[in-house]
Structures are given as C-alpha cells and as structure tokens.
C-alpha cells in the first residue's frame, strides 16, 4: 500500500554550498545502491528524496536503504492529493497498516505548502477526529503514543506515514575525501573501514601478505572482506602488498621483541607511498587502545612516528564487544573469524614489546638502512591492485573473464 | 507423434548448459574441496562461489546457505534438526494437512518419538488460515512448518501473513518448504520472517540429488548426519561440487527469467482452465483465485475414474502427466491433499496433475486439451457401464 518512501538526510550540520553538493551526492549514492530495482523513481526536494515504488518490493529496498551512508532515516508513505477527504482516507489506511494494532496515537501535521486551506492545528484535529471515528478503541495520547501519524503537506501532494526507520547516518560516501585503510584479516580493520566510510571517506584498502608463510586463503579472506566493504561503497580498490621480503629482513635483525613495531612502521611507510600515488590524505587503522602489544599508547607513539599523513583510528576508544557488535551488523564478523593467519600473527614473538624504545627502533632501522628502503621500494612496486565489487566480479575483468565464469 | 512432458512438478529437464557444467566439473575438479592443496582449494573456491551466488539470488548471507541432497533431506534437517536441538521439554510441532510427504511423514516419525503435533486443516482452496496457525502455538512449540506452494494442486500458502503473526512468538522457528516455488515465485523468506527455507535443484532445471536449506543466522539445528565439518558442521560428507555449481547456475538462469516465465505460466494455466471448462467430466481442484495459485500446476479430477487409467491413456496419446505427487502416485489411496480440501472420496481418488514448464507454448496447451478430450471421450462409455 505504501507507494512512496520518504528519505531524510542529516540536516543541521551541512549548510550553504556544501549542502547542495551533499544532496546531489546523496541522490547519486541512493540511486547506485538501488540500481537493481529498475522500477523505482527518484524525486529530490529540499533536504529529502522521495522514492516511488512502482511495485518494487518494499522490504528489499528498505534493507538496502538502511546501509546507505548519509541517510538518517526513512519512512514508507502514502501520498494523497491535497484534499481533506483524500488525506483523511490515507491517514486511516496508514493507521490500519500498523502492526501490531496500536492502542494510542497522535497526529502531527506539517504544512510545508502554505497554500493548503487548513493550517496544521486545524488539520491535527480534522485528521485525528476522522481516525477516532473510524477506529473505535483507539485513543489519543499526545505524550507517549504507540504511533505518531505524520501528515506532511507539500505542494505536489500530502505524504502520510506512521513509521520512521533509522538508517546508517553519517555523510555520503566520498564527501570528505579519500583515505587508505590498513586491512588485515581480523575483526577490527573492516569495522574501522566501515566507520571511516560512514563519515564520508572514500576508502582504498591495503593488505600485506607473506606468501608462502601465509596461505592463499588468508588473501582470499581479505578479498572477501574488501568485497563486503564494496557492498557499502559500490566498489573498492584493494592493494595487495607482497611483504615477505621486508618481513624476513626485519625478522633477521636480532630484535625479536621489536619485530611487530618494526613491521608496523614499515607498513605505514608503504601505505603512505601508496596514499601519495592514489591521492589519499589519511591512513585509517583498526587500532584499539590497549588491545594488543602494538596498540598500547607506548607502541602507538613509536609506530606512528614515520607517518606524515594523519593516522585515523576510529576504534581507538572502543571496547572489543562494541567492535564485534558492529562487525556482526555490517556483515564482516563471520569472515573475520575464519582461521587463516595473516602476516602479523606469523612472526609474533613470545614477548612483544609493549613499550618499545624509539631510539633503539630507529637505530635498528638505520642499521638495516639502504637495504630496508630498497625492499620497501620493491614492495610498493610489486603491489598488486584489484578493483572489487560486492558481487565479486572484478570490474574491467569482465571481458577477459576467468575460465570458470562459464560455470556460474 | 509429439510427446508432451507435462510433469514439471515431479522433475524438470535440466538446462543444457547445466548438464555441460556438471560434466566439466566432474572431469576437471574431482579433488575434494576439503583438501589443503591447490586442487582442493580451487574446488573450495568454486563451492563457495556457488554458495555466494545462491545467497545473492535468495537474499541470504553465504553462511546461511546449507547444501543438502535435495528437498527431502532439507525438510528432514529443518524439522528433526530443530526438534532435536530444542531438547527436553520443547515437544510440539505445527504443520498442515497438505504438506509434501517429506514433511508429513517426518512429522509422523517425530510423533512416534514422543513429539506432539498439530496438523492444521485447509480450506477448499487448500489454504491454511494464518490465525489458526497462531492459535495452535504453545509455550513448548518448537517449529511451524508450512509449504509455500503445494505440489499437488499448486496452492500458494499465506506465508507472509503467517510469518507476521509468528513475530509475536520468538521461541517458534518457522520452516517453509519452498521446493515447488523456487524459480516460479519471488523468494522473500527474510522479509516474511522465515527461519528455514527448503529448495531442490531438479525442480528448477538443475541436477537431481542436490538442494539447499536456508538457515537464518542464529538458528541452531542438530545435524542429522554426523561427519566432517562441511557445511559448518551441519551436514558432513564430501561436498557434491559438480551438482552444487550446476544448481547455482540453474538458479541464476531461473531467477533471471522468473517474471517472464511466470507470466507465460499463468497465461497457459488460464488457457488450459478455459479448455477444461468445456469438458464437463473433468473437475478442477485448486484455488479459484489465481493470486493464490502457482503458475505451473493444474490439478483435475475425473470423479470415479481411477487416475492411473487416465495417466496411461494420456501416455498412449503422447502426454505425460502424474497422479497426485510423483512421490505418492504408486499408492491407490485417495489424495490426502484433496481430502483435506474437502473433496469427496471419488474426486480425491480420481485426480491427475498437469504441470508445465519453459518449453510449452499456447499451442501445446491446445494440443493437450485436444488429447484430454479424446481420452475422456473414450472413457465416457466405461463410466456409464460401471454406474
């Protein structure tokens, strides 16, 4: 019965010229997310988008809309002509659709189009009385109603709805620029990526692998995680950095307890080089304060030093349980807990430094000197880049499709 | 003489490309998908790609797709797995009188194990009342099992409405046998509030011996086959890679063309019913409202006539149809489904099922009607002599 969906954006924070850009990006993002529903029509007005269903399935469209960044909430709505009788009929229909049947309600009318004959106060009464007459047993409660029936009078028609579905919030993707995400295979980094995207950052993922010390499956797992992020982003770039040489070099430095610190610093250097090439202005990591040895404040201080770009750590003050909850919600948890080792778990010493000494770390790096820099250069050069989409098919690969594609 | 295959509800002719795919995979990917070497991981990748494709096509997550040997196993896994998992003190199952044998007899078996059951009646169209389902729920109810499309008469059950009512009973799992619906109707199992959904590949032009059960995340089942850790430990046994990939491809082909084919099915159905109205000896069994009928099944009775006679005479005319469901057609008993719909003994014992598919056009239906008319004409005198 709900032929329309009314979509709301964040309203207060964005103003002026940015606002128009925000709204245009928003509409583009909504259209991209819903492109498989061919029947939908989109109407943009100030601060809102209206979607006309044309028989597309509401549930499936709603499921998808919930995950579009920048949308605060949406409502399935009936649109009536700007005529009292029609508005009343729509109000009654919208009330009947509420399950389970409510006991109390209130009507909130907004007269956005001032040309309508009755003002909002009169309308509250006119619509409310009609519902009361036709739904015996239903009572008005203006303070804590089971249902708030909203009537929104616009020039093109009046939208009537009774439910408000919360959505992802944040900014439309890409509105706030681009960053590189260090994507391991664990629980945290995909969540960090999602949170960064939710704040309007376009993300390119960087993964370090150490084949044959790590398995092919570990790489596949990261590809799967990146694909899940691509569900939110439309598509995503994944940089696969061959880290074996750098890692084995560092492992031979004789400073076992510093190896994680040294590795993380090398990773940041590589990520920055990639960021520069790709025009990204920050590096996002899944660090959460105190979680492991490399995420103590002392470690963060020493590890972060080589980076010149801002290091964004969306999870830094979050508890593991909160992070897991988000991972489950965004659909990365099940993949993250697959048992394949990534390159960090592999060389973990028995007692990694929780408070590494910056001067010793810098001395070790200086000793490795040119050789380490050469290996870092090489890793950057040999980095493989893939563009992934949610469905897994790699963009641009369609023509030169994999031989097994014919089976699917 | 042209032979017409009108028994798609029993099994469908597989897509040619599916036959090719299964053969190629048997030859090229014989490695066990659980093996650690390259050949094994390659097979595993194909298996997971098939799972991903099926998940995408059914609105599931990949970890919610469990591969099985087909509809019967999926139904058994859903019912017994849920009851066994629920453990002591939870011993009640609700189902309907018109379920497929693999649910109905599974419920009978559970009864012998001490599970109490409520078998709900249906109306003349074969539909169960959602309110009756809700009224049957008890504190110890483990599961409600209702099919989406009936395999004998094609009735569509009010799954969405039942699912909405069951939202008030979070302790009750909702299983839907979707075997006859997949590829014909939209499968919005999540939106409907379904926890467990059964499908079988050979009903949508895939290979036999393979199917899947969709298991909503968080729903726990006791495995029926103890074994390796395949299918998340829910179903041991070496993965049937060729058939699974063949199934995924068939589902994609079916889903991509679903709306067009459903439209064609309804057109053929209307045409056949139009012809049948001109044959007074034949009575239509099923929903009068087309919105409650699947596009591919028409059930007809020649009251008082043994259906095998009709089937065999039609076969002589080059038309292949079934009596009841293929799974129970060897029995001479009246159809349990038709009896539940209120048909008398004569009508319930004399039913044939005509089910068509993608290869049929309107002129095939006209030809079918012509041959039906001929057979009825031959049987008519016999009917008189018996009376």
Structure notes:
The complex is a heterodimer of chains A (408) and B (387). With 408 residues, chain A is of the alpha/beta class. Helices cover 40% and strands 20% of the residues of chain A. The longest helix of chain A has 24 residues, at 358-381. In chain A, 39% of the residues are buried. Chain B has 387 residues and is of the alpha/beta class. In chain B, the strands form three sheets. Chain B has a seven-stranded mixed sheet, with helices on both faces. Chain B is globular and about 70 Å long. The chains are: A alpha/beta (408), B alpha/beta (387). Chains A and B meet through helix 2 and helix 6 of A and helix 1, helix 2 and helix 7 of B.
Strand content of chain B: 5-15%
Summed over residues and divided by their number, the pLDDT of chain A gives a mean of 90
The tally of strands of chain B reads: 13
Characterize the biggest β-sheet of chain B.
7 strands, mixed
Q: Which consecutive residue ranges of chain B, at least 5 long each, have pLDDT under 50? A: none
Shape of chain B: globular
What is the assembly state of the chains in this entry?
Answer: heterodimer
Helix content of chain B: 40-55%
Largest sheet of chain A: 9 strands, mixed
Write the layout of secondary structure elements.
The complex is a heterodimer of chains A (408) and B (387).
Chain A: E1 4-9, H1 16-33, E2 41-45, E3 48-52, H2 58-65, E4 71-80, H3 84-96, E5 104-111, H4 120-134, E6 139-140, E7 147-154, E8 157-161, E9 165-166, E10 178-182, H5 188-198, E11 202-209, H6 216-233, E12 235-242, H7 244-251, H8 259-278, E13 283-284, H9 297-304, E14 311-312, H10 320-330, H11 333-336, H12 343-346, H13 358-381, E15 384-389
Parallel strand pairs in A: 5-6, 5-7, 10-11, 10-13, 11-12, 13-14
Antiparallel strand pairs in A: 1-3, 1-4, 2-3, 4-8, 4-9, 7-8, 12-15
Chain B: E1 4-5, H1 16-28, H2 38-58, E2 65-68, H3 71-86, E3 92-96, H4 101-112, E4 116-120, H5 130-136, E5 141-147, H6 159-166, E6 173-177, E7 196-200, E8 211-215, H7 241-256, H8 258-277, E9 283-285, E10 297-301, H9 307-316, E11 319-320, E12 322-323, H10 336-340, H11 345-349, E13 351-355, H12 362-386
Parallel strand pairs in B: 1-11, 3-4, 3-5, 5-6, 6-7
Antiparallel strand pairs in B: 2-8, 7-8, 9-10, 10-13, 12-13
